[in-house]
Amino acid sequence: MIPLILRLKKASHKEIAKAQDIIVSAVYEVLFDSVLHGGTCIWRCYRGNRFSEDVDMYIAKDKARVNLLFELFEKKGFEVERKKISENSIYSKLNYNGTQVRFEAIFKKSRGSLAEYESAEGNLLTVYALTAEELIIEKVSTYLKRRKIRDLYDIFFLLRHVKDVSKVKTFLNELLSRFEKPLDEKDLRVIILEGVVPTTEQMLDYIKRRIEHG
Questions:
Q1: Which fold has domain 4-130?
Q2: Which residues contact 170 (CB under 8 A, 6 or more apart)?
Q3: DSSP character at residue 50
Q4: Which residues on adjacent β-strands are paired with residue 118?
Q5: Would you say 14 and 4 are in contact if contact means Cβ atoms under 8 Å apart?
Q6: pLDDT of amino acid 124
Q7: What percent of the chain lies above the pLDDT cut of 70?
Q8: Would you give the distance in Å from CA 190 to the centre of its chain?
Q9: Biggest distance spanned by C-alpha atoms of the chain
Q10: Contact of 115 with 128, CB cutoff 8 Å
Q11: What is the pLDDT of residue 3?
Q12: What pLDDT is attached to residue 87?
């Protein structure tokens, strides 16, 4: 398997990927039951083809351990440029040798499933992540709220990891019934790492076929 860092074409993407690895590793040193979700989860745990900048996790609401986590970030070389901790979530901007990465977390108990996270160097780290079905359900909700092409692409991509489409059929039907065109359709070409960049119509056709034929 070609290491991830060799599949990334942009130098900035390579640096972000390395910074993400340090963040994910640090989280599991302090908050052991954390669960990855979002675009970086898809990219790293499901061999996704779309670059994602943010690290999104569900973590335990433990103030002492959250403080330890940010101390650990700093020990590992990050500058904490912004940190906002609310009742339900964390939003932060971290800088690692000039590379900025956002770490966002929601205080939520989520079981997660064991998954293999591919590091930039091609190593595998065992983590907790959402299943493909759970990610699709989240992405349908996210697309309907913000209409970003990346979320539609993620749904299209993740369906190849779903054997029993009945588990997500209700959510896919909701997506189709309420669908409006993405606001940023042209942006997809910039974040697809390799291969063909599907159009909105092609992705919708694929989703419809999976609903009909499973």
A1: Nuclear Transport Factor 2; Chain: A, (3.10.450)
A2: none
A3: B
A4: 124
A5: no
A6: 96
A7: 100
A8: 17
A9: 52
A10: yes
A11: 84
A12: 96
Taking the C-alpha atoms of residue 65 and residue 207, their distance in angstroms, rounded to an integer, is: 41
Phi-psi region of 195 (alpha: psi -120 to 50; beta: other; left: phi over 0): left
The string of pLDDT tens digits covering residues 89-125 is 999 999 999 999 999 999 999 989 999 999 999 999 9
Q: ∠ at Cα 42 (40, 44), nearest 5°?
A: 65
- Long-range contacts at 206-209 (CB < 8 A, ≥ 24 apart): 206/156, 206/159, 207/155, 207/156, 207/159, 207/172, 207/175, 207/176, 208/176
* Per-residue model confidence (pLDDT) at position 195: 87
Burial class (CB in 10 A: 0-12, 13-18, 19+), 185: middle
The amino acid occupying position 180 is E
Sequence spans of domains, the chain: 4-130, 133-213
Token match 């996210």: residue?
142
CB 111 within 8 A of CB 145: no
Can you name the residues that pair with 192 across neighbouring β-strands?
Answer: 50
Residue type for position 68? L
